Automatic annotation (TrEMBL), chain A:
Presence of keyword Translocase: yes
InterPro entries associated with the record: AAA+_ATPase (IPR003593), ABC_transporter-like_ATP-bd (IPR003439), ABC_transporter-like_CS (IPR017871), ACT-like_dom_sf (IPR045865), MetN_ABC (IPR041701), MetN_ABC_transporter-like (IPR050086), NIL_domain (IPR018449), P-loop_NTPase (IPR027417)
SMART domains reported in the protein's UniProt record: AAA (SM00382), NIL (SM00930)
ABC transporter domain boundaries: 2-241
GO molecular function ontology, one term from the record: ATP binding
UniProt entry keywords in alphabetical sequence: Amino-acid transport, ATP-binding, Cell membrane, Membrane, Nucleotide-binding, Translocase, Transport
Any single biological process term in GO: amino acid transport
Organism: Sporosarcina globispora (Bacillus globisporus)
Name the record gives this protein: Phosphate ABC transporter ATP-binding protein
PANTHER family per the UniProt record, alphabetical: AMINO ACID IMPORT ATP-BINDING PROTEIN (PTHR43166), METHIONINE IMPORT ATP-BINDING PROTEIN METN (PTHR43166:SF30)
Upper classification of the organism: Bacteria, Bacillati, Bacillota, Bacilli, Bacillales
Pfam families given in the database record: ABC_tran, NIL
From TrEMBL, chain B:
Pfam families found in the cross-reference section: BPD_transp_1 (PF00528)
Lineage of the organism: Bacteria, Bacillati, Bacillota, Bacilli, Bacillales
Topological category with respect to the lipid bilayer: Multi-pass membrane protein
NCBIfam families: PRK10782.1
Domain ABC transmembrane type-1 per the UniProt entry, residue ranges: 12-204
InterPro entries: AA_ABC_Transporter_Permease (IPR051322), MetI-like (IPR000515), MetI-like_sf (IPR035906)
GO terms for biological process, alphabetical: D-methionine transmembrane transport
This protein's UniProt keywords: Cell membrane, Membrane, Transmembrane, Transmembrane helix, Transport
Domain of life, source organism: Bacteria
Protein known as: Methionine ABC transporter permease
Subcellular location: Cell membrane
Segments crossing the lipid bilayer: 16-38, 50-74, 80-100, 145-167, 187-209
């Protein structure tokens, strides 16, 4: 649906060349919700702006619905844009126009007949739950309502792609959540491909199917939300994951680990999917001659799959512990020993 | 008093005619220039630094010449257009040369105030540069544009009084020839009072209209 091939974007700034995008290769499939996460300045804004040509890449290709944008004329690109809706962080609504006129704008530009516009706008306002606000002005609305209008406007021309540029970053957590649910509904009901860029990992966790981590203009990690969250590979990805999933061992527990001597050993156990529902530890305690002590643990749901994370202390003879570990490894869980310096 | 009521009303009508016609022609010239100043600047819709710099410099030149000198300097052009350099119609020409560039600047300022995010949204929708200007920029800036035109109109009232001093007719002419040169204080006070009322009225009207546009 959207494909970037060796995409580069270089800015001149005060005689110096700054590479915002440094060779991006990425493919976003039809019908998925794809998230790109990165710190500010990582290049994520430049990336999303290349999809609808708000920014022209220095080199490389952007292919949208089979069209290579680099090969199209300005006029042809305008046509492609009608097929791409965009939602902005600061909504970017026209304050001089009513909610109705704002939502109608893309249709007016496309010279759609008036009665058709009227029908479509009411449909859209109903969909975002603001049909009673048609005659209000944007400055009479709350942030969340403004973003709903922004979304309705983006959907007006029935696009097959929706770009969300930090669409929830200006909103409070509750409103963020309701906007994300709305985006999910759009994705499900209209089968619209959604590309989201954000610096909030909670946004990715809540609605994305796949995620890419961008840093210094490069994609450093990419995968399903489940894989990236359950086993992040790069330090940046780990940092992002830890902002929403506390899998760091608390300091007080680290102290305990540091003091450990003798027979106890401390392990981190990750449960995935159905294994999270099994009484694994009590089985271990019954089968082997060891005791266990849960030091820390949490369980989160990722894309509908439970994902658990436990830090457990085993007490007992080495040989028993080794056998217990072997037993645990046969289940659908991963286990590894935690040394005092590891996380 | 050396003049009768009719003479004052006649002068008032002349002033209104001068202001109205010069405002009309200045707007016709200033509006496109103001739009071009915004659209052709660096990083904007129709970036074209040659066009921008030429318009920018010409406007600066006209804006830096004092009106009283501008009026005399362009007499040949006035003669070419109107056929004479004396009278109300002739006064309109220098007034347009004065107010046109002024309006262009005011429009430029108003349009630059528009949130760049709105332009970005327009571009994302696939709007053409023309659509961006007329369906996004101007509507968003309209309330501020009205205030700009109010300032320009009041500027023209003042300038038209000056034009009167060199044979353009109107209230300024009346004030100079009777009030000043013939020491008729009453005429002087009456013309000044009329000008004060005009300016107050115009400003209030502009404010109300602008407010109405901002919050319908």
């Amino acid at each position: 649906m959207i494909e970037f091939q060796n995409l580069k974007k270089v800015y001149e700034s005060g005689g110096q060349q700054v590479a915002a995008l440094n060779g991006i290769d990425l493919k976003i499939n039809k019908g998925e919700i794809f998230g790109v996460i990165g710190f500010s300045g990582a290049g994520k804004s430049s990336l999303i702006r290349c999809v609808n040509w708000l920014e022209k890449p220095t080199s490389g290709k952007v292919i949208v619905s089979g069209h290579d944008l680099t090969a199209l004329s300005v006029k042809e690109i305008r046509e492609v844009k009608r097929n791409i809706g965009m939602v902005f962080q600061h909504f970017n609504l026209l304050n001089s126009k009513t909610v109705f006129a704002n939502v109608a704008m893309p249709l007016t530009l496309a010279k759609v007949p008036k009665d058709e516009i009227k029908k479509r706008v009411h449909e859209l306002l109903e969909f975002v739950g603001l049909e009673d606000k048609a005659n209000s002005y944007p400055d009479q609305l709350s942030g969340g309502q403004k973003q709903r209008i922004g979304i309705a406007r983006a959907l007006a021309t029935q696009p097959s792609i929706l770009l969300c540029d930090e669409a929830t970053s200006a909103l409070d957590p509750q409103t963020t959540s309701s906007i994300l649910q709305l985006l999910k509904k759009i994705n499900k009901e209209y089968n619209i491909t959604i590309l989201i860029i954000t610096h909030e990992m909670s946004v990715i966790r809540e609605i994305c199917d796949r995620v890419a981590v961008i840093e210094a203009g490069k994609i450093i990690e990419e995968g399903t939300v489940f894989n990236v969250f359950s086993s992040p590979k790069t330090q940046t990805a780990k940092n992002f994951v830890s902002t929403v999933m506390n899998d760091q061992i608390p300091d007080s527990i680290k102290e305990v680990i540091e003091k450990q001597e003798g027979l106890q050993k401390i392990f981190r156990i990750n449960f995935v999917g159905s294994s999270a529902g099994q009484p694994l530890l009590s089985q271990v305690a019954k089968k082997f001659n060891i005791d266990f002590n849960v030091l820390f643990g949490n369980i989160t749901e990722l894309q509908g799959t439970p994902f658990g994370n436990l830090i457990v202390e085993f007490q007992g003879p080495d040989s028993e512990i080794r056998r217990a570990i072997q037993f645990i490894s046969q289940e659908k869980v991963s286990i590894r020993e935690v040394t005092s310096r590891a996380s | 008093m050396l003049v009768n009521q009719e003479k004052i009303i006649e002068a008032l009508i002349e002033t209104i005619q001068m202001v109205a016609f010069s405002l009309l022609f200045s707007a016709v010239i200033g509006l496109p220039l103001g739009i071009l100043l915004v659209a052709t600047r660096k990083g904007h819709l129709l970036e074209n630094l040659v066009v921008f710099n030429v318009i920018n410099s010409i406007i600066n030149i006209f804006r830096s010449v004092p009106f009283i000198i501008l009026m005399v300097a362009i007499i040949p052009i006035t003669r070419l257009i109107v056929g004479t350099s004396i009278g109300t119609a002739a006064a309109v020409v220098p007034l347009v040369f004065y107010a046109g560039p002024y309006i262009a600047r005011l429009i430029e300022n108003s349009l630059l105030e528009v949130d760049p995010g709105v332009i970005e949204a327009a571009e994302a929708m696939g709007a053409t540069p023309g659509q961006i200007i007329f369906k996004f920029l101007i509507p968003e800036a309209l309330s501020s544009l009205v205030l700009g035109f109010t300032i320009a109109t009041i500027g023209l009232v003042g300038a038209s009084a000056m034009a009167g001093a060199v044979g353009g007719g109107g209230l300024g002419d009346l004030a100079i020839t009777y009030g000043y040169q013939r020491f008729d204080t009453t005429v002087m006070l009456i013309t000044v009072a009329i000008l004060v009322v005009m300016v107050q009225g115009l400003q209030s009207f502009g404010n109300i209209l602008s407010k109405k546009i901002r919050r319908r």
